Amino acid sequence: MKPSIPKGTRDFSPAEMAKRNYIFDTIKSVFRLYGFQQIETPALENLSTLMGKYGEEGDKLLFKILNSGDFLSKVDDAILNEKNSLKLTPAISEKGLRYDLTVPFARFVVQHQNEITFPFKRYQIQPVWRADRPQKGRYREFYQCDADVVGSDSLYNEVDLIQIIDEIFKRFQINVTIKINNRKILSGIAEVIGQADKIIDITVAIDKLDKIGIENVNKELLEKGISEEGIEKLQPILMLHGTNEEKLSTIKQVLSLSTIGLKGVSEIETIFNLITPLQLQTKIELDLTLARGLNYYTGAIFEVKAQDVEMGSISGGGRYDNLTGVFGLEGVSGVGISFGADRIYDVLNMLDLYPKNSIDNTQLLFVCFGENEQQYAMQWIQQLRQKNISVELYPEVAKIKKQMTYANNKAIPYVAIVGEDEMKQNKVMLKNMIDGQQTLVNIDELINLIQ
To answer: Residue 91 above 70 pLDDT?
Structure first.
């Protein structure tokens, strides 16, 4: 049987890893520019940390890990015979793979609250796992690149995150739109249509508007118990068009009797007012159907879409006031953004936007006729590496053609050929593998040419 990997996961070749590192390095450099510091958390978390934080749908997508040893021996026979996986799972599994980086971060903040300085600005670049149905742009194992600020209510943090989005995608040369909304506006909408208790059902359904269309959203709302009258009142909001100012003006009238809704409108207006003088390159659009399916958001929410390719959101985030509260630390507000490295990777591939120097190729290969030549080459190689030049020695005494083929296959741009004549003159024959030109050079000339 041929070896394989699980669906929704991928291997990455050296060339692909060079591209991915370009993505990670670009994102890291911008995070650091804005004062964020890096942390890491374990791949495994206790299920008690993860369960109930992502809503019912999120709980189903958690990868759960079986307890070690004979995990069935202590399970009650009645539970085993019932064959109910929901009842059985807590008895045989205490840990799971993290679903995102935000909930582990909240756990980290509570656990280390006496060691960190607030407001705490952290970034984290690590893989997460979701038992989702794999499809284009959606994987079961994928990297998230998160930046969060906790311990500050200021909307300047939201403005910082919007600037970070703008700067990162400017560096990638990807044209994007930032969609922005506020969960307080959505709560206000639920309130004015008389369905305040159904806020989660409403947000989960309308968040799918782009994917399934308005008819299916309305159908789902009906199935969730939203009244036909309530759904009718929602239609103008779902169909809202115009400039950001026009949308805000309309929604302000719709929410005139909702205190929480008007608070959301005020927060969005403040963010727009702070951003306007900054003259960002990125288009920012108020989208009142944007809900971000996760339950923990309480304020501004963001989603980033690439304009030139068909792809789901490539970045998203928002404000959460209550997340650390579930771990016993009340009143700590946070706001964060997450960049989907795997989707960004796919977009950069589709648009061929990688800089040519993003590939970490060896710069120079030493090709030798014999063992004496190899020993001679090793002294040169040591000096070159001290100058930060990436160098390889072909490790076996093989035919020159074989060594040259190796250089071609690895796209190594220069080859240093060493034979008896070169050694007598204390030089090497440098061959440019792109144009075929050969030059006899000493060590200083070689360093200058390669650099």
So the answer is: yes
The Cα 107–Cα 127 span in angstroms is 17
Question: Considering the domain 361-450 in this protein, what is its CATH number?
Answer: 3.40.50.800
**CATH 3.30.930.10 spans which residues of the chain?**
14-62+99-351
pLDDT of residue 392: 96
CATH superfamily of 14-62+99-351: Bira Bifunctional Protein; Domain 2 (3.30.930.10)
The pLDDT-based confidence of 294 (bands split at 50, 70, 90) is low
**Contact by Cβ (8 Å): 384, 409:** no
Q: Looking at the predicted structure, is the pLDDT value of residue 160 above 90? A: yes
Per-residue pLDDT, 295: 67
Which of 102, 77, 104, 107 has its CA nearest to residue 91? 77
Q: What stretch(es) of the chain map to CATH 3.40.50.800?
A: 361-450
pLDDT of residue 65: 93
Residue 8 has pLDDT above 60, yes or no: yes
314-344: pLDDT as tens digits:
999 999 887 788 888 988 999 999 999 988 9
Closest CA to 62 of 82, 74, 72, 48: 48
